[in-house]
Amino acid sequence: MASILTLETMSLPLRVLEEDSSSSSSFSSNPTDAVIFVGISLVLGIASRHALRGMRVPYTVALLVLAISLKLSRSKSTDIAEYGTHHRLGKIGNGIRLWANIHPDLLLAVFLPALLFESSFSMEVHWIKRCIIQIFLLAGPGVLISTFCLGSALKV
Q1: How confident is the model over 63-103, as pLDDT tens digits?
Q2: Are 97 and 85 in contact (CB under 8 A)?
Q3: What's the burial of 99, exposed, middle or buried (CB within 10 Å: 0-12/13-18/19+)?
Q4: Looking at per-residue confidence, does 22 or 39 come out higher?
Q5: How far apart are CA 44 and CA 70, in angstroms?
Q6: Which of 29, 94, 119, 123 could be cross-linked to 33 through a Cys-Cys bond (beta carbons 3.0 to 4.6 Å apart)?
C-alpha cells in the first residue's frame, strides 16, 4: 500500500513567533541575533568558570545563583524568559526573544548531548567505583519508588 505524503502530514510542530503590533516594528527575527546571544552567554559562562576555579562551589550552582541574582536585580521584569527584551537591548534582546520562543524538543536535542558529555567527561572513575552500590540503588528501586509515590499522590 502506497501512502500519500502531503506537506501537512510531514510538517513538524513549529512555534509561530507572535509579536504584538507595537513591538513588531522594533523586532526583526534575524538568526544572527540568536547566535550573538549564545556567544555572549558562552563567554559569560567561561568567565564564571574561570572565576570559580579555586572555590569549592559547584559550577552549576554558581550559574543558578548568578541567574537568580540577575532576575532579582530587575524586579520590574515579570517573566524571567523575557529579561532584557523590553529594555531596548537591540540585537541581544532580539536573541533573547528568539531563544524564548524555541521549541523545547529542539532545545533538548541540541544542548542535552553536550551537557551529558561534559558531565560524564569530568567524572572521576575512582569515585564511581566507590559509590556504585548507591548509584544502582538510586537508579533502579529509587526511581520506581519515587514514581509510585508521585503517581499515587497525583491520583488522589
Answers
A1: 888 778 877 765 554 554 455 555 667 787 788 778 878 88
A2: yes
A3: middle
A4: 39
A5: 13
A6: 94
The pLDDT, as a whole number, for residue 126 is 92
DSSP symbol at 81: G
In terms of Cβ atoms closer than 10 Å to its own Cβ (0-12, 13-18, 19+), residue 93 is: buried
Residue spans per domain, the chain: 26-107, 121-156
Q: Is 72 exposed, middle or buried (0-12, 13-18, 19+ CB in 10 A)?
A: exposed
What is the structure's pLDDT at 83? 52
Q: Calculate the alpha carbon distances from 88 to 22, 91, 108, 116, 151 in Å.
A: 13, 9, 29, 35, 45
33 φ/ψ sector (left φ>0, alpha ψ -120 to 50, else beta):
alpha
**Is residue 10 scored above 70 in pLDDT?**
no
Burial class (CB in 10 A: 0-12, 13-18, 19+), 55: exposed
pTM of the model: 0.50
